[in-house]
Amino acid sequence: MTVSRPLTGLERVWLVADGLWPPFVNQLVVEGAGGLDPTGLDPTGLDPARLDPARWRAAVDTVLPAWPGARARLRGALGWTRWVADGAPPAVVEVDGAGWDARGPAPFTARPLDPHAGPIVEVLLVSGATPRVILRTHHAAFDGRAAWALAEDLGAALRGEPVRGAAFADLSDLAYVGDVPPAPEPEADAMAPTGPATTHEEACTWARITVPSVTRGRVLPRALAAFASAAADFVEGPLRVSVPVDLRRHHPGLRAAANLTGFVRVDPRLPAGPALASALDARAEGGVVRTAHGLRTVPLWAMAAAGRRAARATLRTGRAATSATVSNLGRLDPRVLDGAGFRGERLYWIPPGNPGTPLFLALTGHPHGVELCGAMPVGFASGGRLTTLLERMAAELSVG
C-alpha cells in the first residue's frame, strides 16, 4: 500500500509561490575541501573534485525505503490534496561548476522541481576547483529541518552507516500548534529594506556573505538588530521581520518529511531576544499555521491571483506585510555528506525568493564562521544593494 499524507494549509501557500515564481526550493550547499583525503579514511582514494555519481545514486537508493516522503507527489484537489509516495525518486545530476564562485545564482540553482510528477528532491554534484554538493528539496514538502535530516541520512549511506529515516504518513502541522488562535496577516505597511524597486520584474536573485568571526551572543537576535541597522541606511519607516519556528520543538526527537514550520513576527528595531522568548512561550508560531489551515479548500487559482496582486503591490510601493523573513538554521556540521571521496569544509542554505517578500535571509553557522545568504527581487537588489545590505550586517556581527 502506498503511503500518503495531507497537503497542509501552509504547504499550499508555498505550492502557489512555486507555481508563480519557481523554483521555491531549499538548497543546502556543501563545499568540499578539494584534494585527496589526507586521513586515508576513505577507502576509495577518489579525488573529491570528481564526484562519483554511481556512489551517490547508490546512497539515494539506500535511504529511499526509510524516506517515502523523498519521492512524494501531489494528487487530488482542494482539501483532499495529498502527498503520495509514488512519484519519481530523487535525481542525482552532474553539473559543471567551473567559474562559479558560489556568491550568487547559477543556472543549476534556478532549476524547478515538479511537485506533481516529481522528483521533489535533487542532488547536484557540482564539479570545479572547489567541489560542491547541493541538496535541493521542494519547500512545499520539506522545510529546512526535514532537508537536514535527509542530508544526514544520505551521508550515513555514503559511509555505510545506519539510516534513521523520517515519518511521513498522515503528518499534519495542526497537531503541534495547540489551541493558539489564528494570526491574521499584517497590513502591508512594512518597508522593503533596500528602498524602492527599480523594476517591477517578478524575478529574484540571491547573494552570500561569509562572516568569518562573530562576536559572542545569540546570533539570531543580533542578526535582527544588524538587519535593522543596515536597513536604516536605505529607508525610514516601519520594519517587520518574520522568523520561522520549527514546530518539532513540541515533539522532541521527531524526524518528519514535511514542512512543519510556523512563524513569529517581530520589530527588529526593538530588543529581539525578549520578543522572541515571549512569542515562543505563547506558542505564537502556531497562529499562522491555524490561519493557513483555512486555505485548504480555496482554489489554487484564487490563491495565485491574490499572491500575484500582493507581489505586484510590493514591487510598486516598496511595502509588504513583512520587510524580511530571517531563518536561523543554526550551527551545522559541514562533514554531513562526507563519503564517496567527498569531504565537506563549509556549508550554507540558499533560501527561496519571492517578489512578495522583499528579503528572505538564511543564517548558517559552521566552524569557519556564519553565512548570510539572502534572496531578493531583482528590483530591490539592483545597484548592488543586496550585497551592500549583507556586508553592513556582516560588519555589525563581526568581531571588532
Write a structural description.
The chain has 400 residues and is an alpha+beta fold. 26% of the residues lie in helices and 23% in strands. The protein is built from 9 helices and 16 strands. A 6-stranded mixed β-sheet has the order 9-16-15-13-10-11. A 5-stranded mixed β-sheet has the order 5-6-7-2-14, covered by helices on one side. A hairpin with a 4-residue loop joins β6 and β7. The N and C termini lie far apart (59 Å). Mean pLDDT is 92; it is low at 35-46.
Summarize the structure.
This protein is α+β, with helices and mostly antiparallel strands. Helix content is 26%, strand content 23%. Strand 6 (121-127) and strand 7 (132-138) form a beta hairpin.
Mean model confidence by pLDDT: 92
Given helix and strand content, the structural type is alpha+beta
For the largest beta sheet, what order do the strands appear in spatially? 9-16-15-13-10-11
Multimer state: single chain
Secondary-structure map:
Layout: E1 4-6, H1 9-20, E2 25-32, H2 53-63, E3 73-75, E4 82-84, E5 91-96, E6 121-127, E7 132-138, H3 144-158, E8 190-191, E9 204-211, H4 219-232, E10 241-246, E11 261-266, H5 272-281, H6 286-293, H7 300-317, E12 319-320, E13 324-331, E14 344-350, E15 360-366, E16 369-377, H8 378-381, H9 385-397
Parallel strand pairs: 5-6, 10-13, 13-15
Antiparallel strand pairs: 1-4, 2-7, 2-14, 3-4, 6-7, 8-12, 9-16, 10-11, 15-16
Helix pairs in contact: 1-6, 1-7, 2-3, 4-9
List keywords for this structure.
single chain, 400 residues, alpha+beta, six-stranded mixed sheet, five-stranded mixed sheet, 9 helices, globular
